[in-house]
Craniofacial development protein 2-like
Amino acid sequence: MEGQQPTSAKGLLLYSGRDKTQAHESGVGFLLSDSAKKTLISWKPVSDRIITARCKVKIKNITFIQCYAPTEPAQVEDKQNFYGLLNRTLNDSPKGDITIIMGDMNAKIGSDNNNLEEVMGKHGLE
């Protein structure tokens, strides 16, 4: 399931996810304000876990890659497929653009914050 939908504040929602009949285990999107919407050049729903948007700014274009990685219990093949597709998406982004990858990578960090106290608390998972 993919699409775009205007918002009540003149913005725009771009989304990519699973069909409504499937389990709600993934889905990604961008919510653009009215001013951000005016910079949008293109967007692509790559999969139910990856979506891209390309915007025109003053100096260069920016390609945003929004993603939602599989969780730890997911099948190894699903994780490999996701990271392979993410890599291809990154490689396919326009070379002159600033590229920003963002999203939920489902990462776990430990609680060892030696020499990292200024940027990391002590409440990570083991």
Remarks:
- The chain has a mean pLDDT of 88.
